[in-house]
Design brief:
- The protein is α/β, with parallel strands linked by helices.
- It folds into two domains: 5-183, Rossmann fold; 190-275, N-(1-d-carboxylethyl)-l-norvaline Dehydrogenase, domain 2 (Orthogonal Bundle), CATH 1.10.1040.
- The chain contains 13 helices and eight strands.
- The chain has an eight-stranded mixed sheet with strand order 3-2-1-4-5-6-7-8, with helices on both faces.
- It starts with a strand and ends with a helix.
- The structure holds acetoacetyl-coenzyme A.
- Acetoacetyl-coenzyme A (CAA) binds at residues 49, 52-53, 58-59, 120, 143-145, 147-149, 191, 194, 226-227, 232, 236, 240.
């Protein structure tokens, strides 16, 4: 299928990043969210990311204008998906919500459209098996921050057709991304490994083996990780990480049992950068800056 328009459902951290990548790839992009305020923030973030890219010499001048002109927004899923050949959902990791969305896609999307999910751990089959279009359902797992991260994990269910995989490979290429192909399994490749590293870092912190700063420093300078596990969990969200660990614990077993300190932080609202405090503290932008 020739993809011209991509609909991205959900304009949170991942959704807005995926919309950036879609527009960067030259696709007409419709970004949907139930909140028009979130949509405004998302478009401002996309504009700012392009500007930063140009300022740092990573994006060619002229590209942002062209890409931004390709983006439109919608607050209704049916409106957003109507003309899309590829729909990528990036809503919270709740099975019920995804089931509801895929039912809508099935009913209202264009004939032959591909339905993709950015889930980072859930079983794609669990919410795509209900569609009559399951051969056109696939996982497209992006990474945060999307503009800078080069990988997309393509997650193929037993029903995903080869044509669907080929089309998504081409979309990824135009977005400037590399692809790995994974046969569906909990946590795919990256989430499974990352969850273990992140959980072990919390186990060490809880046991008083080293400070958070030194654990981060050790992984950065000793193992060449670009970010330490605590810097990374603050970026991804402690609630997101806990959610993933709970799912992997229930599907893959004991070694994924979420650390208690992580649970405690989440309970206290220490969710990472987005809440101003995670493992580390982050100065909150003033009200005027917050709007941008
Ligand atoms: N638009 C397009 N491309 C851009 C860009 C922009 N605005 N800004 C940068 N790039 C490109 C650059 O050209 C560069 O590509 P090349 O190497 O080909 O030149 C690439 O993006 C990286 O850019 P930088 O080298 O400038 O990036 P940086 O030095 O600022 O490093 C970082 C930032 C890449 C995020 C690095 O700190 C890092 O890798 N951190 C780890 C992040 C991580 O692990 N994320 C995964 C989280 S887990 C997840 O997301 C999955 C989940 O399900 C929860």
């Amino acid at each position: 299928m020739d993809v011209k328009t991509i609909a991205v459902i959900g304009a949170g951290t991942m959704g807005r990043g995926i919309a950036y990548a879609a527009a960067f790839g030259g696709y007409k992009t419709v970004l949907e969210d139930i909140s028009s305020r979130v949509l405004e923030q998302a478009v401002a973030w996309i504009r700012q990311s392009f500007e930063e890219g140009v300022a740092r010499g990573k994006v060619e001048a002229g590209v942002p204008e062209k890409a931004l002109a390709l983006i439109s927004t919608a607050t209704d899923v049916k409106d957003a998906i109507r003309n899309a050949e590829l729909i990528i959902e990036a809503v919270p990791e709740e099975l019920e919500m995804k089931l509801e969305l895929f039912t809508i896609f099935d009913k209202f999307a264009k004939t032959g459209a591909i339905f993709a999910s950015n889930t980072s751990s859930l079983s794609i089959t669990d919410f795509t098996d209900i569609t009559v279009s399951r051969e056109r359902c696939i996982g497209m797992h992006f990474f945060n921050p999307v503009p800078k991260m080069k990988l997309i994990e393509l997650v193929r269910t037993p029903h995903t057709s080869e044509e669907t995989v080929v089309t998504c490979r081409e979309v990824a290429r135009r977005m400037g991304k590399e692809v790995v192909l994974v046969n569906e399994a909990p946590g795919f490749i990256t989430t499974r490994v990352n969850a273990l590293i992140g959980n072990e870092a919390f186990n060490m912190l809880e046991a008083g083996i080293a400070t958070a700063e030194d654990i981060d420093k050790a992984l950065k300078l000793g193992l060449n990780h670009p970010m330490g596990p605590f810097e990374l969990v603050d970026l991804v969200g402690l609630d997101v990480r806990l959610n993933i660990l709970e799912y992997l614990h229930s599907t893959l077993g004991e070694k994924y049992r979420p650390n208690e300190l992580l649970r405690k932080y989440v309970k206290e609202g220490r969710l990472g950068r987005k809440s101003g405090r995670g493992v580390y503290e982050y100065p909150q932008p003033k009200a005027a800056e917050k709007k941008a």
